[in-house]
Amino acid sequence: MKAEIISVGTELLLGELADTNTSFIAGQLAMLGIDLHHASLVGDNRERLLAALRQARQRADLIITTGGLGPTQDDITREAIAGLLEEEPAVDPALKQDLIDYFARRGIEMPENNIRQAVLIPSAVGLPNLRGTAPGWWAEKEGKVIVALPGPPPELQAMWQREVYPRLEKMSSAVIISRTIKTWGVGEAKVDEMTAPVLSAKNPTVGIYSKQDGIHLRITAKAAEKETARKMIARPEAEIRRILGDNIWGTDEETLEGILGQLLIKKGLTLAVAESFTGGLLSYTFASAPESERFFRGGIILGGGEARTAFGLKSPPLAGRASDGITAKMASIARTELGADIGFGIDGYAEPSVDISTGKIFVAIDAGKSSQSVTHNYSGRPHQIVRRAVQSALFDLYRVLR
Ligand code: AMP
Ligand code: MG
Q1: Which long-range contacts (C-beta less than 8 Å, at least 24 apart) are formed by 14-22?
Q2: Where in 200-240 does DSSP place strands (E)?
Q3: 131, 158 in Cβ contact below 8 A?
Q4: pLDDT at 136 exceeding the cut of 60
């Protein structure tokens, strides 16, 4: 089944409002295994909407519109659909009663204009709107389905879950299931090269995406049944795990800090951080992990120069440019000052540059009896360096704890 989405609203074309309804619906269609081939934006103009609907009807089996169902003259979606199907809209007594009841519950009399929202055409049934006044439409004619949904996202999403999704689930002959495998430490081109044998498959497909927290591989399988699709994913997943091995740190919704937190909790260990170059981002990352109060003792954020002396990072030689010696000291201070089992230090520097910057990141892990230091050479865009420093530090800790 092929689908097309048309978002209606002049405000979308003026750039005043982002079209979040399309991304919501697109994600839902993917889950249902319905192919979305086109999505477009149309202003509040009956002729242009009608033209877009005509084109959509030629190439899609399912057309979903969002917006333009309000009570005012510029809400033209109902009229345009009636025009497309060459039917006359008429007030539907049941929809009219729903509207009257809706206003009565709020203690207001229904404004005259709202009667526009109670019309139907013979091919359509109304979809109740629990969060607003505009009912949706589900119209079926000549083997094609047209669904009209209200613009406000809370109304649209509630109507989707309750009325539209179940109907589409019955119609769709396929489901799509996907699994994301998250890696760190190998570049995008290298991952692409290494996994070439699994990348050429048509179903399941494997896509590679570069994200803040590393390179993600997303396996997507399409099948008639959920169980079959799940089984189809197993083989490329095993293959990817064999190829990328220790560079894999998680899947799907997992975050590195969440995984680290759970590992620490399981081992009964606590962690404290000292950081300078990353300006608090590492502490913030741990503090926002689930159950952080169970493992995260806190963080010390050092500026340059004077502040370091307060913690015994006396200058020289500890002032000036970051080094692995300073970072090891920072890790040890974090551990002792904050009473944690593990002290985690991070510092670094970047050569000033507007385009590509290079630099070094120093990570130290101090567990009292044993300690480890790692140095990373960095090269990348300047605005990314701090975030990447944090991610690589997290991955270093993950490697040690695992
Ligand atoms: P309408 O059904 O056209 O009266 O839309 C009412 C309101 O819904 C608009 O003023 C927007 O706030 C919101 N809205 C409409 N279309 C979209 C869209 N495509 N994405 C997100 N919000 C929307
Ligand atoms: Mg509108």
Answers
A1: 20/153, 21/66, 21/67, 21/149, 21/151, 21/153, 21/156, 22/66
A2: 205-211, 214-223
A3: yes
A4: yes
Bridge partners (DSSP) of residue 248 are: 183
Q: Which amino acid is at 332?
A: S
Q: Which residue has the tokens 């959920």?
A: 226
Q: pLDDT per residue over 141-161, tens digit each?
A: 999 999 999 999 999 999 999
pLDDT, tens digit, 9 for 90 and up, residues 356-387: 888 899 999 999 999 999 999 988 887 788 99
> What is the rounded distance in angstroms from the CA atom of residue 402 to the CA atom of residue 398?
6
Nearest CA to ligand 1 atom 6: 151
Dihedral of alpha carbons 271, 272, 278, 283, sign: positive
> Is 126's C-beta closer than 6 angstroms to any atom of ligand 1?
no
CA distances from 84 to 79, 146, 278, 400 (A): 9, 10, 58, 64
pLDDT band at 316 (very low <50, low <70, confident <90, very high): very low
Mean pLDDT of the chain: 92
Ligand 1 within 6 A of CB of 77: no
154: Cβ below 6 Å to ligand 1? no
CB atoms within 10 A of CB 187: 11
Whether the CB of 136 sits within 6 Å of ligand 1: no
- Protein residue with least CA distance to atom 13, ligand 1: 152
